Structures are given as C-alpha cells and as structure tokens.
C-alpha cells in the first residue's frame, strides 16, 4: 500500500508553549515554529494526558515503519503559533474568541461529567439546546473548516478524530474520505440522557469506524443503537521508554524534594486533579488504615488538565478540587500522611514509581487507565478501580487488586492486603502485570491501527 497522508484531530494539543520565540527582526511572534530549534521545558512542554501520550508515539511509529508519508495534527491551542513542526508531523492550532471559549468549556465539561456519572441524567437533559452548546458547535465547526482548508491543499487519505470534544467534526467535514473516531472516555448508555441519544447516533454515524478502549464500550454502543463498525483497540504506551531504571541518586533527589523518608511505605496515585479521578476515595481509605499502617504515605502526582491550565481553557476545577482534598485530609487527620507533587517531569515520575511500593487508580469512572500499564512496566503492583476500562484485563490477585471506588473499606482492605504480603502476592502481581502490559504495547496497537487504515483506504 502506498504511504498515507493522515490528518489527526484532538482537543488537547501535543505541546503547550511556555514562551513563544519572537522574530528578531520584527519582534513579532512567528506564525510557524520549528520545535527542533526550541528547548523542551523552557519554550514548550508536552501536554499531559493519555491522548497525546498515545497519538504522538503512534504517529512516530507509523512514520518510521513507512506506513505514513507525513501527518498533520489539528488541535485547540489558543496561546500558540498557528503551526509548529516536528520531523514528519505538522501541528496546526485552532483558537476561538475567549468569550465563545467559555460556552464551549461549559458544554464539554457537562458532557464529561455526565459520561463519568458525576451528575444525574435529569440535570443534563436539554444540554444541546442551550446557548453554551451553540459555542460547542461553533468550536467544532471552526475546527472542521480548518481541516477542510488543509485537505484542499494537502489531499489527505484519511481523518482520525479523537474523543468526545470533537465528535461533531466528522459530520461537518462533508467528505467521503475515510473517517475514524476514537472514543476515549467511559461509555455507558445508562448515563446518557434520552434526548442526547439521537444527537450522538447522528454524529457517530458520520464515521466509517469507531474505535473504543474496551469490549464493554463496544457492547454499550450496540445498546445505544449504533449499527456501524466498532473496533476495540486497547490504549497503549511504548515500553521502550521505560528500559532505563532511574539511578539511586535520582530517586534520592526526588524523595528529598517531596519529603519522602526511607522509612515510608509509598502508595502512588498518578492522575490530574479532577473529581472523577477519585483522589478523595484514596484519602478515605488512608484514614481507615492510618493507625495500622503508620508509615504509609500516599503520593499524589498530577496537576490540572489542558482544560484547566492557564495555557488552555483556563477552567479552575483542578484548583478547587485540590483545595477540597486538602480540607478532607485535614479533617481526617492525615495531612502529614499525604504528598501532593503537582506536575512533575517524566524523569521525576519514573523515580517516584521506582520508590513506590504500589500504585492506586481510584477513579470513580475511567475510560481506560494507562497509568496501570505504566505501573506494570515499572514492576509495581496496581490497585485498580473496577470501573476502569483496564479492569477487564485484570484478574484480582493475579495481575492486580480490584476494588469498588464507592467503598473506602474495600480499598482499605486491598491496601492492607498488599502491605501484609510476605512477597508471594507481590511477585504474582508483578509477573502477571508484565504479561498483561504486552496487550497494551505500542507495537501491538500499531499493527492494529495499520490494519485499520488498510481496511479503509485499501492497498
């Protein structure tokens, strides 16, 4: 099959600019920049989150394997140059008026909260008839117009649209070229208001293939009434990024930075600050075991998402959630047992995994949970909410420990279980996790994605 030219669309951009270099001749911000000439951590940083952690490695892999000629990536990035370039990949940034951004943000947060079961269906009914929903449509229309302009100039072979924020784009493109939509967040028909369902079916039907993160979501799409092709591809990471273990000095430096002592037992929670991530559930469980496990410390890694960052939509939910967690820890008398690191570098995160005794994914609801795979690769036992997509890969006691996030006693029981282990359980969980991680490897996913592209484009 000839090499393909692909257009990828996500809300979250691959990179967020910390500063944009100015043209030395005009002092104006350039409309296009070469990222290879800039410094990561000084001029820009890669956006946190599973979507960008998946999409970028996939594109690089497919470029290296000769599947793609080049790739173009359209995303929302209001504080960035119009375009930025990496080898083989061009980033195109969309911006809309801040006044209209607020309505878009309100709508997409309402969709997010409803899908994750944080608000009732009754409260969400009528959402798509609100003025804010008009701005959600406007943003998607603006994105679709930018993609159409690029397609006119570059003639793409297929379009790969990612996540619920971009769902209307496929219908708005007005092209017969193959279109793929990947749904990343949880999907449960029971959480979807009745008046949303015709809208969602209409948007979903515009795509030639829907990709979901678990077999359960595929069955839920069928329950919705979707009759198109649905493919399950587990989310993935590249194990090659974890081949080098952090040096002891690096681990010691990170522990000193965050006040983690040698006597401490560490449970690691890696997630952005958001109610759906269930950090409060972990605090409640810690309160139940604080007397029996006095040396246990929970280390919370993460800050806000792109939506809550100052460089993104500027929503303040992460700050409010962090303040609430601080209050709950204080009331429970465990403030000295928890560490909030905020955003850390990948090297620091690797060091924290190395220092940890186990990881916890306490989410109320979770589209998948790539941090579990990351924990497996780091050879750390994982305690996992049974409402995560990744839970369908887990057999309790064999490659993970499952719990109901609504039961603090259930999570506390699993914490005590791993703390009391004489080594046999830990070895079983680590070995089973390493085997399960192969299912979520970049190599496996790249093969499945390549077969998907070939089935739609032909060869």
Describe the structure.
Strand 15 (358-361), helix 12 (370-377) and strand 16 (382-385) form a beta-alpha-beta unit. The protein folds into two domains: 4-237 and 441-457, Glycogen Phosphorylase B (Rossmann fold); 239-440, 3-Layer(aba) Sandwich (Rossmann fold). 39% of the residues lie in helices and 17% in strands. Helix 8 (248-258) crosses helix 11. The protein contains 15 helices and 17 strands. It is globular. 45% of the residues are buried. The protein has 459 residues and is an alpha/beta fold. The strands form three sheets. A nine-stranded mixed beta sheet has the order 3-6-7-5-1-8-9-10-11, with helices on both faces. A six-stranded parallel beta sheet has the order 14-13-12-15-16-17, sandwiched between helices. Strands 2-4 form a two-stranded antiparallel ribbon.
């Amino acid at each position: 099959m000839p090499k393909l030219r692909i257009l990828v669309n996500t809300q979250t951009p691959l990179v967020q600019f910390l500063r944009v270099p100015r043209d030395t001749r005009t002092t104006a911000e350039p409309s296009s920049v070469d990222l290879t000439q800039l410094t990561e951590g000084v001029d820009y940083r890669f956006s946190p989150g599973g979507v960008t952690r998946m999409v970028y490695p996939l594109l690089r892999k497919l470029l290296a394997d000769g599947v793609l000629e080049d790739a173009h990536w359209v995303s929302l990035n209001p504080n960035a140059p119009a375009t930025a370039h990496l080898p083989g990949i061009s980033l195109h940034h969309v911006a809309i008026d801040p006044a209209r951004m607020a309505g878009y943000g309100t709508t997409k947060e309402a969709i997010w909260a409803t899908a994750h079961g944080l608000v009732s269906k009754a409260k969400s009914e009528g959402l798509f008839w609100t003025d804010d929903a008009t701005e959600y449509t406007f943003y998607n229309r603006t994105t679709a117009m930018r993609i159409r302009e690029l397609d006119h100039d570059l003639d793409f072979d297929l379009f790969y649209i990612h996540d619920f924020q971009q769902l209307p784009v496929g219908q708005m493109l007005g092209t017969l070229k193959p279109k793929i939509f990947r749904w990343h967040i949880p999907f449960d028909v029971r959480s979807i208001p009745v008046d949303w369902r015709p809208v969602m079916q209409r948007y979903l039907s515009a795509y030639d293939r829907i990709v979901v993160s678990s077999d359960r979501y595929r069955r839920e799409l069928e329950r919705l009434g979707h009759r198109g092709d649905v493919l399950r591809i587990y989310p993935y990471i590249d194990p090659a990024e974890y081949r080098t273990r952090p040096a002891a000095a690096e681990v010691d430096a990170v522990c000193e930075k965050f006040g983690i002592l040698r006597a401490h037992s560490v449970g690691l929670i890696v997630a952005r600050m958001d109610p759906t991530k269930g950090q409060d559930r972990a605090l409640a469980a810690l309160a139940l075991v604080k007397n029996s496990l006095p040396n246990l410390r929970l280390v919370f890694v993460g800050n806000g998402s792109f939506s809550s960052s100052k460089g993104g939509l500027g929503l303040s939910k992460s700050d409010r959630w962090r303040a609430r967690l601080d209050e709950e820890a204080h009331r429970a008398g465990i403030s000295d047992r928890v560490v909030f690191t905020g955003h850390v570098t990948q090297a620091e995160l690797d060091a924290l995994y190395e220092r940890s005794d186990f990881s916890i994914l306490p989410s109320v609801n979770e589209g998948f949970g790539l941090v579990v795979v990351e924990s497996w690769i780091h050879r750390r036992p994982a305690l996992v909410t049974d409402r995560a997509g990744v839970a369908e890969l887990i057999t309790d006691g064999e490659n993970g420990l499952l719990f109901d996030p609504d039961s603090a006693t259930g999570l506390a029981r699993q914490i005590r279980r791993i703390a009391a282990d004489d080594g046999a359980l830990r070895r079983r969980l680590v070995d089973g996790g390493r085997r399960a991680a192969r299912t979520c490897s970049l190599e496996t996913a790249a093969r499945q994605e390549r077969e998907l592209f070939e089935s739609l484009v032909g060869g």
